[in-house]
């Protein structure tokens, strides 16, 4: 299995965090950094690691499990940068937990819902999740006390975990990744729909359409999917259907663009938070700006998703109608043949 090496210079990308969440990679610490913060690399490397193909027992659809691992990895990246000195015991336990895939469950439910301003989001579920993975046999009625006793976290470190944006940003990361994947699947669906309804792709070659912002990736995908079709004519076709397909093309391209934009924004916020790039007295000002930016992009993403859904609701009945008619014609032919045989 592939290793991702953590250091203090560069944070993992959102895609890498998703791989960690899905147990597709192992975590290692850069040797010079490990030496600097007194980590025992031999101990970490000697731990028997999980093999995702054989040891992974949690369903991939359990998003809360994925989120727990992503949050744990984000906390690990923050812990590597704590001042004045990182907590080597805490870091060791987090790396072991991520690599052995042990004691990760659904993320605790006692979380504060996002209220439109993520700067005030609190995450009491984070200490409970961390106490589970760092000390699974301890009494979890008071997770903060467990983390203080078992791994020596200070009150300030605990407060930084609870009063942080890690959970909210992890949720947004999962959402953005899902929407990006959905846009790719939607391109595939559109290709199948064009094949099913015999929609010519001549309109995809129009410069006027290709100049619309963000559509070129979707255009290339549809051309690649339909160029060798034996069912799609070169020209013609139902103008209404072509109009619906071209509109859906734009909406799906917008959905992909917004998802990618949100992932980039979250990555920048994570980087700034973990690296303490903003002066403390100005942090609240920057937080407000981040919150406004993310809120605007999330609203736009929701609107775009609604547009995609509305167009599907118009296109799918057309396909069902066509194949229902074809099915009925086939049944009539079968009945006629059966009748002739009987005669």
| Backbone CA Rg | 26 Å
Order of strands side by side in the largest beta sheet? Answer: 1-2
Number of separate strands: 2
What is the overall pLDDT average?
80
Model description:
The N and C termini lie far apart (67 Å). Helix 10 (166-196) crosses helix 12. Mean pLDDT is 80; it is low at 53-61. It contains 14 helices and two strands. The chain has two domains: 2-164, Fumarase C, Chain B, domain 1, CATH 1.10.275; 169-340. The protein has a two-stranded parallel ribbon with strand order 1-2. It is elongated and about 85 Å long. It is mainly α and 343 residues long.
What does this entry show, briefly?
The protein has 343 residues and is mainly alpha-helical. It has helices spanning 14-21, 31-36, 41-46, 52-55, 63-79, 88-100, 125-134, 143-151, 155-162, 166-196, 207-210, 216-226, 239-275, 280-342, and strands at 2-6, 25-29.
Brief descriptors of the model:
mainly alpha; Fumarase C, Chain B, domain 1; 2 domains; 14 helices; 2 strands; elongated
Secondary-structure blueprint:
Blueprint: E1 2-6, H1 14-21, E2 25-29, H2 31-36, H3 41-46, H4 52-55, H5 63-79, H6 88-100, H7 125-134, H8 143-151, H9 155-162, H10 166-196, H11 207-210, H12 216-226, H13 239-275, H14 280-342
Parallel strand pairs: 1-2
Helix pairs in contact: 1-5, 5-6, 5-10, 7-8, 10-12, 10-13, 12-13, 13-14
């Amino acid at each position: 299995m592939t290793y991702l090496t953590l250091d203090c210079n560069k944070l993992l990308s959102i895609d890498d965090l998703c791989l960690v969440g899905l147990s597709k990679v192992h975590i290692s610490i850069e040797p010079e950094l490990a030496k600097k913060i007194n980590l025992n690399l031999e101990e970490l490397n000697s731990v028997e690691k999980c093999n995702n193909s054989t040891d992974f027992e949690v369903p991939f659809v359990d998003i809360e499990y994925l989120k727990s691992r992503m949050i744990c990895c984000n906390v690990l990246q923050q812990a590597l940068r704590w001042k004045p000195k990182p907590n080597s015991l805490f870091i060791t336990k987090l790396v072991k937990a991520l690599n052995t895939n042990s004691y990760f469950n659904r993320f605790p439910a006692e979380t504060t819902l996002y209220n439109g301003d993520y700067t005030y989001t609190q995450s009491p579920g984070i200490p409970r999740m961390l106490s589970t993975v760092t000390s699974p046999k301890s009494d979890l009625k008071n997770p903060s006390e467990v983390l203080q006793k078992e791994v020596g976290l200070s009150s300030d470190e605990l407060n930084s975990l609870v009063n942080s944006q890690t959970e909210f940003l992890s949720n947004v990361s999962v959402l953005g990744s899902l929407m990006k994947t959905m846009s790719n699947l939607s391109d595939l669906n559109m290709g199948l729909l064009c094949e099913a309804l015999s929609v010519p792709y001549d309109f995809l070659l129009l410069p006027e359409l290709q100049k619309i912002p963000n559509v070129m990736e979707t255009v290339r995908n549809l051309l690649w999917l339909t160029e060798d079709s034996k069912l799609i004519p070169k020209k013609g076709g139902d103008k209404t259907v072509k109009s619906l397909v071209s509109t859906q093309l734009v909406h799906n391209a917008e959905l992909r663009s917004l998802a990618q934009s949100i992932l980039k924004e979250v990555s920048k916020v994570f980087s700034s938070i973990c690296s303490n790039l903003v002066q403390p007295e100005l942090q609240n000002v920057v937080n407000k700006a981040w919150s406004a930016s993310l809120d605007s992009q999330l609203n736009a993403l929701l609107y775009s998703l609604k547009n995609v859904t509305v167009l599907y609701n118009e296109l799918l009945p057309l396909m069902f109608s066509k194949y229902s008619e074809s099915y009925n014609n086939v049944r009539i032919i079968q009945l006629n043949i059966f009748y002739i045989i009987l005669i």
